[in-house]
From TrEMBL:
The keyword Ubl conjugation does not apply. PANTHER family: 3-OXOACYL-[ACYL-CARRIER-PROTEIN] REDUCTASE, SHORT-CHAIN DEHYDROGENASES/REDUCTASES FAMILY MEMBER. Its EC number is 1.1.1.-. Keywords: Oxidoreductase. The keyword Oxidoreductase applies. GO terms for molecular function: oxidoreductase activity. It comes from the Bacteria. It is an enzyme of class 1 (oxidoreductase). InterPro entries: NAD(P)-bd_dom_sf, Sc_DH/Rdtase_CS, SDR_fam. This is SDR family NAD(P)-dependent oxidoreductase. Belongs to the short-chain dehydrogenases/reductases (SDR) family.
Length: 251
């Protein structure tokens, strides 16, 4: 894999904790300058400090992914700090496990807004900028739930992640001739704090035993996939969704 340009800049959404933090740290360890974004300023500071203590370059910024203006200000911040932006990782998301017939219209809209609308706005704002620059990489975080209907998550979460897979194809097709690639990663259950928060121990154990490889996914490996998709040598890969689910869904 080609090393990034010395000054390549990546923006990671939802990077204050869990997989987002792992993604930000992975890119920083591979010489990217990282703009860590989240809604929680204390978590932003934690990720930025983790990167800086290891010699990486990072700054933080508050981003509400439901607001187009926040994406625009985030892009402006990257340009102000480093004069460029090269990669967007649309990682921010919200998970609920509410049973199908108990999901309120308000909760449905909230999940879809954060997960699918947030991804759409990020692709729209950064995709436009990247196309004008003639180069860019967008990586969207989908989910196994988009493919199997969500065995351990709510219907609204599964639907929103399915929308992300479709949006990935739409933006990839539109931006392909402009030097911009758009791809998605579809993880199964991961060994992250959030999964342990939403699943009680007995259900987590049942989920783990149901995975053919017998273990939760490694978030560090998901970050490796994202790094590969974001590399300058990945010019011919676009519109793809890469599965990483331990064999729960094969195609």
């Amino acid at each position: 894999m080609n090393k990034p340009d010395q000054s390549d800049v990546v923006v990671v959404t939802g990077a204050g904790r869990g997989l987002g933090s792992d993604l930000a740290q992975k890119f920083a360890a591979n010489r990217y300058k990282v703009l860590v974004t989240d809604l929680d300023t204390s978590r932003i500071d934690e990720t930025v400090e983790l990167i800086r203590t290891k010699g990486g370059v990072a700054e933080g910024g508050v981003l509400d992914v439901c607001k187009k203006s926040d994406f625009e200000s985030t892009l402006a911040k990257a340009l102000s700090l480093w004069g460029r932006a090269d990669v967007l990782i649309n990682n921010a998301g919200m998970t609920r496990t509410t049973s199908l017939f108990d999901i309120s219209p308000e909760e449905f809209s909230q999940i879809v807004d954060v997960n699918m609308r947030g991804t759409f706005l990020g692709c729209q704002v950064f995709g436009k900028y990247f196309s004008e620059e003639g180069y860019g990489r967008i990586v969207n975080l989908a989910s196994l739930a988009a493919q199997n209907g969500g065995a351990a998550t709510g219907a609204h979460y599964a639907a929103s992640k399915g929308g992300i897979v479709t949006l990935t194809k739409v933006f990839a097709r539109d931006l392909a001739k402009k030097g911009v690639t758009v791809n998605a990663i579809s993880p199964g259950p991961l060994d992250v704090e959030l999964v342990r928060e939403i699943l009680p121990p007995e259900k987590l154990e049942a989920v783990t035993q149901s995975i053919p490889v017998g273990r939760l996914g490694n978030p560090n490996f998901i970050a490796d996939i994202a790094l590969l998709m974001a590399s300058r040598s990945a010019a011919s890969m676009t519109g793809s969704t890469v599965d990483c689910n331990g064999g729960l869904y094969v195609r």
